[in-house]
From TrEMBL, chain B:
This is ABC transporter ATP-binding protein. Residues 6-247 form the ABC transporter domain. Keywords: ATP-binding, Cell membrane, Membrane, Nucleotide-binding, Transport. It comes from the Bacteria. GO terms for cellular component: plasma membrane. It holds the Pfam family ABC_tran. The lineage of its organism: Bacteria, Pseudomonadati, Pseudomonadota, Betaproteobacteria, Burkholderiales. GO terms for molecular function: ATP binding; ATP hydrolysis activity. PANTHER family: ABC TRANSPORTER ATP-BINDING PROTEIN, CONSERVED COMPONENT OF ABC TRANSPORTER FOR NATURAL AMINO ACIDS-RELATED.
UniProtKB/TrEMBL annotation, chain C:
The chain crosses the membrane at residues 16-34, 41-58, 64-84, 96-117, 175-193, 224-248, 260-291, 297-324, 336-357, 385-404. It holds the Pfam family BPD_transp_2. Its main location: membrane. It comes from Caenimonas aquaedulcis. InterPro entries: ABC_transp_permease, LivM-like. This is Branched-chain amino acid ABC transporter permease. It is found in: Cell membrane. GO terms for molecular function: branched-chain amino acid transmembrane transporter activity. GO terms for cellular component: plasma membrane. Keywords: Cell membrane, Membrane, Transmembrane, Transmembrane helix. It is a multi-pass membrane protein.
UniProtKB/TrEMBL annotation, chain D:
Signal peptide: none annotated. Keywords: Amino-acid transport, ATP-binding, Cell membrane, Membrane, Nucleotide-binding, Transport. Pfam families: ABC_tran (PF00005). Belongs to the ABC transporter superfamily. SMART domains: AAA. GO terms for molecular function: ATP binding; ATP hydrolysis activity; branched-chain amino acid transmembrane transporter activity. The keyword Transport applies. Residues 2-231 form the ABC transporter domain. The keyword Transport applies. It comes from Caenimonas aquaedulcis. PANTHER family: ABC TRANSPORTER ATP-BINDING PROTEIN (PTHR43820:SF2), HIGH-AFFINITY BRANCHED-CHAIN AMINO ACID TRANSPORT ATP-BINDING PROTEIN LIVF (PTHR43820). This is ABC transporter ATP-binding protein.
UniProtKB/TrEMBL annotation, chain E:
It comes from the Bacteria. It comes from Caenimonas aquaedulcis. GO terms for cellular component: plasma membrane. Its main location: membrane. Keywords: Amino-acid transport, Cell membrane, Membrane, Transmembrane, Transmembrane helix, Transport. This is Branched-chain amino acid ABC transporter permease. Belongs to the binding-protein-dependent transport system permease family. LivHM subfamily. The keyword Nucleus does not apply. It is found in: Cell membrane. It holds the Pfam family BPD_transp_2. InterPro entries: ABC_transp_permease, BCAA_transport_permease.
Length: 409, 256, 430, 231, 315
């Protein structure tokens, strides 16, 4: 049951790789595998399993085998706590989750409490996509490591990009009325005021999440405001319907988004026709090299797109940390992970020790018809092409985290 | 002069444009038994609905023991001591006979909306319900759900609920409808028994019942009170004969 | 049915035994199921029992179909959590064990406000108003991070304030016993409620509101008070959930939650007091365990509802009561062979059907992992003709045998029911 | 026209009719009498195919047992249920419309005939039937069935809750039906009217026919009257 | 003026869209009294069927084939499931449709996968119909409005020119009696339920490509269509129509109103600061709550006019 070694091989000090080889690190994946967000969860589970399989054994410095098992948290914070309990009962010491900050914060908090109340049985929480800045700021936790870039970092990158776009003069912000949407609006206003104070905020709209069936009135308002650019944190239906409504009204202005690449959204976007949509993310659809090969193989195997590149970084980091710690024991691995730097698909990435936020390269990509040789996202004939690459420092944001580290050893 | 138990003063009711009750005035002394008769659609049930608060009158007054009750809600009127039964059986189908009756007595014994006392400990309410059950001769059906009773038993229960609250003025709308001769006879006796000392108004079409039960008869025709008098006088009244009686059916019933 | 019959017996031994048994089960359950998952499951069952019972105050006892009961359990949870944080951060002198009551009181206050508009109406308008209010509260729960804590909700630490008798409520088992005490007390109180004048008038309002007005009661007020009381218990369950999870997020006021209360209360059986207890237990099992067991859990859930509503509209409780009635007339023992046969044949049919469902899901979701899948200890080849053929064969055999036994059983059952009817008539006429 | 033989009817397991046998000729009014619960309404329902039953029901030479109620209605049997089963949420006129089997049906009766028969209904034709007075509802059920242009009409306690004058009126109308060649099976409680208009009387007791004969012979038979009818 | 005209146009077209989505529900709910929670699922099925048929034979045949398929499924469901529970009352009827919605959702995911499918607007209707003040009015939207009006007319004819409505209304209280009058009640019920399902399916054919065809699409229209039906008044087609338009227009205009309680308070001399109690509520703009206005509308209408705007009955 236990992931960690049952029979400690006679230790060959200084050569951890040999000692660890053959051990299995089991990671519990908890995200929605049924219900309305199942498509995303299923894809990401496969991505994790795929990355784990590919990078097991000799492919990682520790030589360990990774195994990812899916738990269905149905997107619910409370259910996540149940799946967490189930995972703990089954001896998992590593947990990963990403879909939704609600569940993420619940897991972060529960892992923290569990580790405090059960010394020696610590868990590590690898957060691959929950982007609420709070998780690495006021609510930061020693056992939590974030592989994605949080909302504020993405906005930092985005505003850095917009800064150099002279034709952007007036921006309309539209978002879902909940923490993410509110944060996007807040960080945008902050960032742009710093970098391009001349840009006008033509308007700001927050609408209830998932309740809008018809975005035409919003589009009318945007047009009325005279904005030349839209910034939105919307995702899922709220994004595709907005794009469709813009198309329908013939309002062709650029739109900067966070989540146009999520499973299902490209298909819906493509069905809506050409539109000028940009995405800020830590990756894009047309990577070459190892990641490109992985994408192709993933597509062949699952007939689906590989886009959660955090899985790649996650497994690499974990492998490196285990090798560095010389153990798969989470308390040691966590320590090793702090400040760890590994080579990723786009330069080096660093797990910042102060808040456990991965510092990585960011991209602005554009949604357009795929040319020959470009990756056709979701078989739509469209793709996300990178138009700007930004080094990690660009999107790095300060943290208010006051990390409490375990005192002993 | 004593105040009438129930008094109507120029009561009117319209539904939309049609005026159904066109100025009824009536005074009933305490302890009297009145039968209300009249052709179909004359407005007898409507009259009862106005008195008991199911509808609010368009104009006019209803006085119960001298107090105005028109426009009040049914439950307020009930609390003032007026209770009614329905032409179409109207009981609590999924409660047992005993529970049906107990529901009828609770308010009058002052239990109101309490949820701090157990029903089982309300000795007075239980005793009264048992007693009522005995009066309407349903003791043996105590724990049967009302929906499973026969039609006649349901009618009896209907009367039981009506008198349960101890109201002094009772309105019964066609209490014997749908019963056979023999049952009707039994039933009249029952009604007589349970309403001793109370003021009673009954709507009936069966002249046998009317003449068997009533001290006085009120004849409603087209929303007006055509006559209000002793049974014999009403029977002899020429206009009543024309409008309502005047047939061998009525004679046959009355003479039965 | 029979409950009312025994009401006046001074020493009701049967009832004493039942309640003691209930207490005993609550007491020993965590000693039998000891893993940390099962302990949190047991805790959640206690919470679900309370909320389903409170929901049934509306549905089963008052005939009020609510689509928004989660509003009350959820708001109770939020306020309980705020209270807990007051205790842990500001040293507010309230023992943690009483925090759920704070949740209950808070929900009650909300019900005083919302209920006033809701209970003005009955039947479909009532249901629709609850739907509307539910949607409104749900939408606001995301819009006001100041109170609801945004996406992450608000969290707290139940180890707060001075420990009394060494109880900190840190370990799950301690919390479980707190929940067990609440579950027992709330169940008892809600049962007591059904025996009070208001409880009875609530039944009357359900059956025939018009007549209630003519025996002196204001139906609106009866519904209103009952609604507030139900909200109080819902709030307590919310408060317990807050302690159990130590986090409250907006999902707790969501429409899905309300829908689940409705479905499972009904499945347990709304017409009997104890039905929702079964419903609550099933709710936790379905959501937590069934989904771990199979990817097709929503399909199974849908099918179970479809068949239950069609063949046992009184829920599981009514099935139990029907058999108890048979037992009371001493004829249950004739049936057990049939039951066994039914269960066995149904199992075979289900096995075949479920294997096929699992294979389809496997093909759809995990085809890349190869055609093999393991199901109940069997290895099936989702792409193999043999597996499919085998499953179809098993299922058809099962269905065939089931139909034969079912016919036999129905005949037997009808005969026993007839006997009981006759017997009852006979006893009545004694 | 209608010939019922060895009719047994069941509500679930309870056996209510035990071999009922009678017939109704063309243009005949037959009264079916009996105490409450003797099975008269059940007989009517059995003929209409609304309860489980066995035996034979022969209508114009055709076995109708086992047919659906609407099929039987289409064969020309009309049924006026007891308890005033009017349709409360639709208007009086619409209630009458539903009596017709199809919108195009042209029968012996028109709306005007009905309104002429009961002027009270004409006055109320656009009100919801649910608010009608008890008596008005009773009239409506009768007219509604007539609109379906039946050859045999089974009427279950039509005079319940009607004022004495109207009861007499109904009696006259039943006789008019007969003149138009329609047979009537009249289920009644009130002997007065039944005896006055019927050609033949049947008395039912405990689920079987215990007497058949003319009204006069029934009047003469004190034993039957005492034992199976009133007190 | 420009904004007003465009908003009015948007409001009306959105209203008609709502009507299209809810017309089948109106039909079933008003006639049979069944709160059909699977209505949105039929809508989804319509979209998916249309997607598959479009791939085989093109959009125009799909416009007929898909609703027909949904109708058959609906009728079968009525015949084999719903009918059995009718006698148990409305709550079981509602729950069985609840169960059905689960099953349909899972089936859809099994057959078409968990992601959205690429179901596009036919080329003929892709693009703007006309331009007004520089804003395009899409042709497909006009098509949707047209279909919604057709649905209205069809149901209206069904209700007024045939007696199906009467038969069903009567059968709700006295099914046996209606049958004894010569009407084949079970068949009528089946037809009506199938018809309602077909309308939902048709809405799906048209809504599926106008919006997004994905397994979550049922849930997103789920409750708002109930609002339309209930606000309009149970048993009232015209009510549902008026309610759809009203909700459409109100919601559309509300999006354009950026005033808040705080603004009202400050013009009344009150000073609202972030420290004020309930600041979040004070600063809420009307535009922010526009999409949930229908629910407020619902609650208010039911309190003050429980029959609904044009309804005739309460239950
Ligand atoms: N809510 C209403 N709306 C419209 N008309 C109504 C309403 N209630 C009653 N009526 C009409 O008022 C008239 C009187 O009805 P009511 O029920 O009082 O008669 P009744 O004297 O009791 O007759 P019966 O002896 O036949 O029961 C009837 O014509 C009826 O149609
Ligand atoms: N739906 C039913 N289920 C079970 N038993 C029934 C049902 N309807 C009637 N019965 C029983 O069948 C018997 C005959 O009833 P029926 O209605 O035919 O009598 P009836 O002669 O018409 O009397 P009434 O004067 O009450 O109309 C009665 O004993 C009655 O209790
Ligand atoms: C023995 C009798 C007094 C009672 C009997 N069971 C009867 O009611 O007929
Ligand atoms: Mg009357
Ligand atoms: Mg009868």
């Amino acid at each position: 049951l236990q992931a960690t070694p049952a029979k400690p091989a006679p230790a060959k000090a200084g050569a951890p790789a040999g000692a660890l080889a053959g051990q299995t690190v089991r990671i519990a994946f908890m995200d929605p595998l049924s219900g309305p967000f199942a498509n995303v969860g299923q894809n990401q589970l496969k991505s994790w399993q795929f990355a784990a399989e590919r990078m097991s054994g000799a492919k990682n410095p520790a030589g360990v085998k990774f195994e990812v098992v899916g738990f269905d948290n149905k997107g619910s914070p409370q259910e996540s706590l149940n799946t967490l309990k189930a995972a703990i009962d089954q001896g998992f010491r590593y947990v990963t989750q990403g879909n939704g900050s609600g569940a993420g914060l619940a897991i972060l908090d529960a892992v923290s409490k569990h580790n405090e109340r059960n010394p020696g049985k610590e868990l590590i929480y690898l957060n691959y996509a929950a982007v609420d800045p709070a998780m690495t700021n006021e609510k930061c936790d020693y056992w939590h490591f974030r592989l994605d870039a949080d909302t504020s970092m993405k906005m930092e990158a985005l505003t850095a990009f917009i800064k150099d776009q002279p034709k952007v003069k007036s921006v309309y912000i539209i978002g879902q009325n909940y923490s993410h949407g509110q944060q996007v609006a807040k960080y945008f206003k902050e960032g742009i005021a710093r970098k391009r104070p001349d840009i006008k905020i033509a308007g700001e709209d927050l609408h209830p999440i998932g309740q809008v069936k018809d975005f035409a009135p919003y589009v009318a308002k945007i047009k009325q405001s005279g904005a030349d650019t839209i910034v939105t944190g919307n995702w899922g239906q709220d994004l595709t319907l907005l794009v469709k409504a813009l198309n329908d009204a013939g309002l062709k202005i650029p739109m900067y988004t966070y989540y146009a690449g999520v499973t299902g959204t490209p298909t819906a976007l493509a069905a809506g026709g050409d539109s000028e949509v940009y995405v800020v993310a830590y990756g894009h659809a047309n990577h070459t090299g190892e990641l490109g090969a992985m994408g192709a193989e993933f597509f062949k195997k699952f007939d689906d797109d590989y886009y959660t590149f955090a899985t790649y970084n996650g497994i690499s980091l974990l492998g490196a940390a285990i090798a560095k710690a010389g153990s798969t024991e989470p308390s040691k691995v966590a320590k090793a992970m702090e400040g760890l730097q590994v080579k990723s698909f786009a330069g080096d990435v660093t797990m910042r020790a102060s808040d456990h936020q991965l510092q990585q390269t960011m991209y602005i990509t554009k949604w357009q018809k795929a040319k020959k040789g470009e990756y056709s996202v979701e078989k739509t004939g469209y793709t996300f092409v990178p138009i700007k690459q930004m080094d990690p420092y660009v999107s790095s944001t300060p943290t208010s985290c006051q990390m409490k580290r375990p005192s002993a050893s | 002069m004593t105040v009438p138990a129930l008094e109507l003063k120029d009561l009117r009711k319209s539904f939309g444009k049609t005026e159904i009750i066109r100025g009824c005035s009536l005074a009933v002394k305490a302890g009297e038994r009145i039968a209300v008769i009249g052709p179909n659609g004359a407005g007898k049930s409507t009259l009862f609905n106005l008195i008991s608060g199911r509808f609010a009158p368009t104009s006019g007054e209803v006085l119960l023991n001298g107090q105005r009750i028109d426009g009040k809600k049914p439950f307020e009127i009930n609390r003032l001591g007026l209770s009614r039964s329905f032409q179409i059986t109207n009981i609590f189908p999924k409660l047992s006979v005993f529970e049906n009756l107990r529901c009828g007595v609770l308010w009058s014994l002052g239990y109101r909306y309490t949820f701090l006392k157990f029903l089982a400990d309300l000795d007075d309410a239980n005793e009264r319900a048992e007693q009522l059950m005995h009066m309407i001769k349903l003791d043996r059906k105590r724990d049967i759900l009302a929906i499973n009773l026969t039609y006649a038993e349901q009618r009896a229960l209907e009367i039981g609920i009506t008198i349960a609250g101890g109201a002094q003025v009772i309105l019964l709308d066609e209490p014997t409808a749908g019963m056979s001769k023999s049952e009707t006879k039994r039933f009249i006796e029952l009604i007589k028994e349970v309403t001793i000392g109370k003021t009673l108004l009954t709507v009936e079409h069966d002249m046998g019942v009317v003449f068997g039960l009533a001290d006085k008869i009120a004849v409603v025709v087209y929303g007006e009170i055509l006559a209000y008098d002793q049974p014999e006088a009403v029977r002899a009244n020429q206009r009543v004969q024309e409008a309502y009686l005047g047939s061998h059916v009525a004679d046959a019933q009355a003479n039965h | 049915m029979s409950a009312a019959y025994y009401e006046f017996k001074p020493h009701n031994i049967g009832r004493w035994i039942l309640w003691s048994l209930f207490a005993l089960v609550l007491l020993v359950a965590p000693l039998v199921f000891t893993s940390s998952l099962s302990q949190t499951l047991l805790s959640q069952m206690g919470i679900a029992i309370i909320v389903c019972l409170s929901y049934n105050m509306l549905l089963g006892q008052g005939g009020m179909l609510s689509f928004g009961h989660a509003v009350y359990s959820g708001l109770g949870a939020f306020l309980a959590m705020h209270t807990l944080n007051l205790v842990s951060k500001n040293g507010f002198p309230l023992p943690v064990s009483l925090v759920p009551i704070a949740g209950g009181v808070a929900s009650m206050l909300f019900a005083v406000v919302f209920g006033w508009v809701t209970t003005k109406k009955a039947a479909t308008p009532f249901a629709m108003i609850t739907l509307g209010i539910g949607e409104l509260v749900w939408a606001s729960s995301l819009m006001f991070p100041e109170f609801f804590g945004g996406e992450g909700g608000i969290n707290g630490n139940r180890v707060a304030g001075p420990a009394r008798f060494g109880i900190t409520f840190g370990p799950q088992i301690q919390l479980y016993y707190l929940i067990a005490v609440y579950t027992f007390a709330c169940t008892a109180l809600m049962f007591a409620f059904t025996r009070t004048p208001l409880g009875r008038m609530l039944n009357a309002v359900r059956d025939n509101p018009e007549r209630v007005e003519f025996v002196g009661y204001d139906t609106q007020k009866v519904r209103y008070i009952a609604f507030i009381i139900a909200a109080f218990f819902a709030g307590i369950s919310g408060g317990l959930a807050a302690l159990n999870f130590e986090i409250v997020t907006s999902e707790v006021v969501g429409g899905q939650r309300s829908g689940a209360y409705l479905l499972f209360t009904f499945l347990g059986g709304a017409t009997f007091f104890f039905g929702p207890i079964i419903g609550g237990i099933l709710m936790v099992l379905a959501f937590v365990l069934l989904s771990e067991f199979t990817k097709a859990w929503l399909l199974y859930l849908g099918l179970v509802f479809l068949f239950m509503v069609m063949y046992a509209p009184g829920g599981i409780a009514s099935l139990i009561m029907m058999n108890l009635r048979v037992a009371a007339f001493g004829r249950l023992k004739e049936l057990w062979v049939s039951y066994l046969a039914l269960a066995f044949t149904a199992f075979i049919a289900l096995l075949g059907a479920a294997s096929m469902i699992e294979m389809v899901y496997h093909l759809k979701l995990n085809a890349a992992l190869g055609p093999q899948l393991h199901f109940l200890g069997m290895t099936l080849d989702a792409k193999g003709v043999n597996s499919w053929f085998g499953c179809v064969f098993v299922m058809l055999t099962g269905i065939g045998l089931f139909e034969v036994t079912r016919r036999h059983f129905l005949h037997q059952w009808g005969e026993i029911q007839e006997y009981i009817e006759l017997e009852m008539k006979r006893r009545q006429n004694l | 026209m209608l010939k019922v033989q060895n009719l047994h009817a069941f509500y679930g397991k309870s056996h209510v009719l035990h071999g009922v046998e009678f017939d109704v000729g063309e243009g005949e009014i037959v009264a079916l009498l009996g105490r409450n619960g003797s099975g008269r309404s059940t007989t009517a329902k059995a003929i209409m195919g609304m309860v489980d039953c066995t035996g034979t029901v022969d209508w114009k030479g055709r076995q109708t047992l086992g047919c659906k109620p609407y099929e039987i209605a289409h064969l020309g049997i009309g049924y006026v249920p007891e308890n005033r089963d009017i349709f409360p949420k639709i208007t009086v006129h619409q209630n009458l419309m539903l009596g017709q089997k199809s919108a195009k049906q042209k029968g012996r009766w028109t709306f005007d005939d009905m309104y002429e028969m009961f002027p009270r209904l004409k006055e109320r034709q656009h009100t919801e039937a649910g608010v009608l007075s008890g008596g008005e509802q009773q009239m409506l059920t009768l007219c509604r069935t007539l609109m379906g242009d039946p050859d045999l009409i089974i009427i279950d306690e039509p005079t319940e809750g009607l004022a004495p004058k109207i009861v007499e009126l109904v009696g006259q109308y039943l006789q008019k039906l007969k003149e138009r060649g329609i047979s009537v099976l009249l289920i009644e409680q009130k002997l007065t009217i039944a005896m006055a208009i019927s050609d033949r009387a049947l008395v039912m007791g405990h689920g079987s026919i215990v007497f058949q004969g003319t009204p006069d012979s029934l009047r003469a038979d004190a034993y039957i009257r005492k034992e199976w009818l009133e007190v | 003026m420009e904004f007003f005209t465009i908003s009015l146009l948007n409001g009306i077209s959105y209203g008609l869209l709502l009507f299209m989505l809810s017309s089948g529900l109106t039909l079933i709910f008003s006639m049979m009294g069944v709160l059909n929670f699977a209505h949105a699922s039929f809508y989804m099925l319509g979209a998916y069927f249309a997607y598959s048929t479009t791939q085989l034979v093109g959009f125009w045949p799909a416009l007929f084939v898909a609703p027909l398929l949904v109708a058959v499924l609906g009728a079968a469901f009525e015949k084999y499931c719903l009918r059995r529970v009718h006698k148990f009352g409305h709550v079981p009827e509602l729950l069985i449709t609840f169960g059905l919605s689960f099953i349909i959702l899972e089936m859809v995911q099994l057959i078409w996968g968990t992601s959205s499918v690429d179901y596009r607007v036919p080329a003929l209707l892709d693009g703007p119909l006309f331009k007004i003040y520089g804003t395009a009015f899409p042709a497909y939207r006009a098509f949707m409005m047209f279909v919604a009006i057709l649905m209205l007319i069809a149901i209206w004819l069904l209700l007024t020119r045939t007696r199906i409505g009467l038969v069903i209304q009567a059968a709700l209280t006295h099914p046996d009696t209606v049958e004894a009058l010569g009407h084949n009640v079970p068949r009528v019920f089946m037809l009506v339920f199938g018809g309602g399902a077909a309308l939902a399916g048709l809405a799906g054919v048209i809504g599926g490509n106008a919006f997004v065809t994905e397994p979550g699409m049922a849930a997103t229209v789920g409750s708002v269509i109930f609002v339309v039906v209930v606000v309009g008044g149970m048993g009232s087609l015209s009510g549902a129509f008026v309610a759809s338009l009203l909700i459409g227009v109100i919601q559309t205009f509300a999006v354009g109103i950026d005033s808040s309680l705080m603004g009202a308070a400050s013009s009344a001399g009150l000073d609202i600061t972030p420290q004020t109690f309930g600041y979040a509520l004070w600063k809420l703009k009307i535009s922010q709550i526009a999409p949930i206005l229908p629910y407020m509308f619902l609650v208010l209408v039911l309190i003050f006019r429980p029959k609904g705007l044009l309804g005739t009955r309460e239950g």
